[in-house]
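Amino Acid Chain and Its Fold in Token Form
===========================================
Scope: a single protein chain, as residues and as a discrete description of its fold.
Amino acid sequence: labelled as such and written in the usual single-letter residue code.
Position: the record begins directly beneath this header, with no further notes in between.
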Amino acid sequence: MEMPTIPTIGSDAAITPPRSPSLSTHTSHTELPAGCTPTHVGNFYSDTLNRDWVRANAGVIKCAWRRFQQHVASTDQRNFAKQDRSTHPDYRALAYLPENVDRYPGRAMQEGRVFYCSPSRLPPLQYPMRVGGTPHRPLFGTFKRAVAWDARFMALEPRKPVTQPFPAGAPDPRLDRLRGIPSLVFNTVIHPTLAITRNAGTDLFLYACEGGRLPVSAFRSVITDLHRLHTLPGCGGVFLRDLKSENLCIPLPPGKPLPSGPLPPVRIIDFEQDVVFGDELASLQPAHFRGTRGYMTEGLIQGMYGGTASLRPAFARTADNYACMQAVMLLTARPGSTLQRCVAGVERIRWRGPLPPGIMRAANAHLFAPWLEQHVHPEHVESMRQLLTDPAKFAKEQTDPPSLMEMLRFQATERRSAVVAQESGH
């Protein structure tokens, strides 16, 4: 389905609200501070207000922002039903009250609805439970679904019945090291049945199903960041374990021609609960398996969760690269082609019994040959063949394997040639 694009947060804002003080543990104040009337608080998202009005009232907005954040920090969560309370240390549940409904049209209809705001983070959540549109197709994964969104944020809840509530409490501090990697789109868990995330656009599996096609160059940034994760110092690297086309998104509408100019980057979603650090690999057992079996092989699973400890980082890195290549080939192959159906993975996801060694086999190698010739540097073609044919063997035998960045060819003129190739059947 068509998802909205993602403008940069605050890119059109006329002012930047000041940072608030540290989150207070004091929770005895429950009333709105004096002066925080609807006229002053209004709606403090300056990028949605009339710019001339914002410039003329910048001082009032800044003052109201400070007062509002103080109010947020002192809100007593015990006043809310247990299912509505925020479990995140940096967020508070609030409710629309008669004296606190702002002046936006239609907002009074939400009186009594709970929303969430942060006194210590910028930007705050923009009324995440406000439905931004009715989808013609449900947005959901195996364990969660989108219940509301706008051009910037999405509100997620576990799929019912709720068998896997979102983990409550503070985020894993080790994941904070990854927040500077631009391809990663983090979820913020507000309470066990609500998480907020940036709207990353259309997932690549849906994009491919709707006939969308991308050049290999569209994956440059995400492949660069994948290599950064695998080589992150101080922890033995970071491995995603469930990289797949459904967990990769691009802010483009499916079924539409590619826009002119540079393409937006592909981003990775829904990864926090699957991430493993290299220094944790030696302790993993088969029961710790995370991911989607259809994008793995039996050899990779055995090597990661039951193999020699010293080789487990190689298996984990190869598993991520193998899954990434399936997504790359799915989106760069001609829509509806035999090659695309071969790498789509649907039959492997439903596979019963031992998984095949890899997506490329003697019977279908001829389908891969033109793609490899076009998109892989000649000196790395054999390495790519081995990765696609038997990634477990690749992990064991390649002591110093080339990265995907080194193997793939990211031509600047790829997009136009991809459109031409789509018509000619390549």
